[in-house]
Amino acid sequence: MGDVIVKHIQGLMVSEYGLEEVLLPLHPEDGPKNNIFVSPNWQTAERLMLLIQGSGAVRAGQWARALCINESLDIGSVLPYIKECQNLSYGVIVFNPNLNSQPKKAPQVLRSTFLTETSNPFKSKPGEVEIPENESPPKHVIYVWDNFVEKSKTKVSVVAHSAGGHGTCILLKSRAKSFHSKVCGIAFTDSAHYCNPSDPEHQRFFLTTKAKNWVKSDEPLDTLIATLKHVRVSAET
């Protein structure tokens, strides 16, 4: 069921929303591949939206696998975000940070996490092949940034869910100069990111002035929950 949902969502992103599927790495042409989805105007639109999901079994186009199956695609997928971006003439890039390896024969892929920038805590099992330059979620977000976002001439906004928040912070730290010049704001949703006193001052300043983390709460929407390390507000859910 999960694989069917993924194929359906990714098919809709192409057929209904006009996004283009791009296989990573861009070179060489053979070997195991990751896939992301980009709008035709990702390089030329005045604004570019990056959609970065969390960890686990979710693939490009999904926020939460269980919600896609048990609730609806309007709740569990990125499709409503893409539609709104198109209404606002935004370009879109849909990341796929959890597709890090492929079995040689089966279509099932290895799960991974956003634990560190360079290491992949789940080593490939016998018969599995890591995807070059996308061997872990951190490597994936850096690869997409360097090969796509860096080449765009637009202002960038980010929506990052759960562990996608940690991946976003990796970009903020490792690509600081271009991140600050391009990104005008981050919308975290139940993000797993954190901000320590030892983090660079520029990173802590950005997270407290240009980012909000919408979290589960019974409080009315946008009610301030905390500001100690980063701004957390109610998602009214």
TrEMBL record:
Record-linked SUPFAM superfamilies: alpha/beta-Hydrolases
One example GO MF annotation: siRNA binding
The protein's name: Arb2 domain-containing protein
Pfam families: Arb2
GO cellular component: nucleus
The organism of origin for this protein: Arcella intermedia
InterPro entries linked to this entry: AB_hydrolase_fold, Arb2, Arb2_dom
Superkingdom as given in the UniProt entry: Eukaryota
GO biological process: regulatory ncRNA-mediated heterochromatin formation
Domain Arb2 intervals: 4-221
PANTHER family linked: FAM172 FAMILY PROTEIN HOMOLOG CG10038
